Amino acid sequence: MRVQTFLRIDILLVGSLLVLALGTAHTQERSTYKPTGGEGTIKGTISFLGTPPEPRRLDTGADPICEQVNPGQTDEWYVVTDQKLANVVVYLRGDSLSSYSFATPSNEVTLEHRGCRYVPHVLGVQTRQIIKVVNTDPTTQNTHATPKNNPDWNQSQPASAAALELRFASPELFVPMKDNQHPWEHAYIGVFPHPFFSVSNTDGSYEISGIPPGQYTVVALHEKLGEQTADVFVGLSELKKLDFSFKASDH
Q1: Domains of the chain: which residue ranges?
Q2: What pLDDT score was predicted for residue 99?
Q3: Domain 39-87+202-251 classified CATH 2.60.40?
Q4: What 8-state DSSP symbol labels residue 249?
Q5: CA dist 132 to 163, 167, 199, 214, Å?
Q6: Beta 84-85 vs 118-119: how paired, if at all?
Q7: Are 143 and 133 in contact (CB under 8 A)?
Q8: What is the 3-state secondary structure (H, E, C) of 144-165?
Q9: Rounded to the nearest 10 degrees, how much is the dihedral formed by the CA atoms of 74, 132, 173, 213?
Q10: Please, what is the end-to-end C-alpha distance for the chain in angstroms?
Q11: In CATH, what class is 103-193?
């Protein structure tokens, strides 16, 4: 009888611990954020101060077709137009964001081999969002993602081949993209667990919308010029203006 009593107590104890563990896990689950109509927006312009470095001439002689479709190709490290800086990733950090999960967008984004270069050079996506990899050049291209937090991904595409699909399950800044066929081709992908990011255009503009009211750190990140941050509070339905400036000495 004593053995049976101890056995019954052990079973009850294990059962209680299991219920407690499941209850704790349930309370730690993050709910999916649902817009309320009171979300805010942050927008602004990224400027470049001073004289930007001269673009570096790329040697594309390994593939004569590339020299034909895009002669005189240069790097895209500093894309500056009228003192406005493109390819800066702007995104939000904040404790309130970790309280929610955010639905994976249904829309796909495109990463294209065009003129024997990646277009766009810098791309932002959410985790698990589909990236369509397209080759529009009349030559074979290779797409090789070399992330740290996600699996390595390496695929080749002959001319006129069907688009490839790529996803990243874990957040990462940045995922370097290279082309083993054309070593001068490079791109960078920012992978985020939320939709609050943007990449500055050639006029330096960026915009992040649908932001839940709260306190945030806004991060502006450039592949060569590094990172700048600003702390802001976004009020109910507020439009916040926030500009950043980089200069060559930042790198």
Answers
A1: 39-87+202-251, 103-193
A2: 87
A3: yes
A4: G
A5: 6, 9, 18, 34
A6: unpaired
A7: yes
A8: EECCCCCCCEEEEECCCCCCEE
A9: 120
A10: 76
A11: mainly beta
Name the CA dihedral angle for 52, 54, 55, 61, rounded to a multiple of 10 degrees. -170
Retrieve residue 106's tokens.
Answer: 């249904």
Give CA–CA dist 143/154, Å, rounded.
Answer: 6
When pLDDT is cut at 50, 70 and 90, the band that residue 17 belongs to is: very low
Beta-carbon count within 10 A of 110 CB: 13
Whether the CB-CB separation of 42 and 232 falls below 8 Å is answered with: yes
This prediction's pTM: 0.86
Cβ count near 239 (within 10 Å): 12
* Pairing mode of beta strands 80-81, 141-145: unpaired
Report the C-alpha gap between 22 and 14 in whole angstroms. Answer: 12
- The secondary element (H helix, E strand) that includes residue 173 is strand 172-178
Q: 25-47 burial, b if ≥16 CB within 10 A, otherwise e?
A: eeeeeeeebeeeeebbebbbbbb
User: Range with the lowest mean pLDDT among 7-16, 98-107, 231-240?
Assistant: 7-16
pLDDT at 26 over 70: no
